Structure prediction request, 146 residues.
Amino acid sequence: MSFWKWEPLTPYQEKQVLEAVAAAELNTSGEIRVHIDKWCKTDPLFKAKNLFVHLKMDATKDRNGVLIYIAKEEHKFAILGDIGINTRVPIGFWDSAKDKMQGHFASGDLVSGICAGIDEVGVKLKEYFPYQSDDENELPDEISYG
Prediction:
């Protein structure tokens, strides 16, 4: 019997990503999560929408959660913001984050791509949801895997 567990990131790489999330959330009341799947047999944005609800990211007070979804083996990804963000931002709001991530991914650097995306998402969130003195961390700072 095999107890093999798929671990796309080393503990050190996980730490890098989680530190990027923590740093980005210092400047915003928004919440950022990362989910990594091995495969995505559908549109990554469709998958991200399903995961968003499953991960209870739609439960924040200001509806300002952002999910960075990655299908590692198929080289697909999506960035999805909750309704509180999407009703306030212009079309193409996440494009700069996607472009920064894609540049790193194209050179084979998954972790730098994820961290660059997190940093850019944090900058974007700060524009509309700056950090508040009474801010609570509403979602766990963890990477989920599928």
Notes: The chain has a mean pLDDT of 91. The beta strands are 31-37, 65-71, 76-81, 143-145.
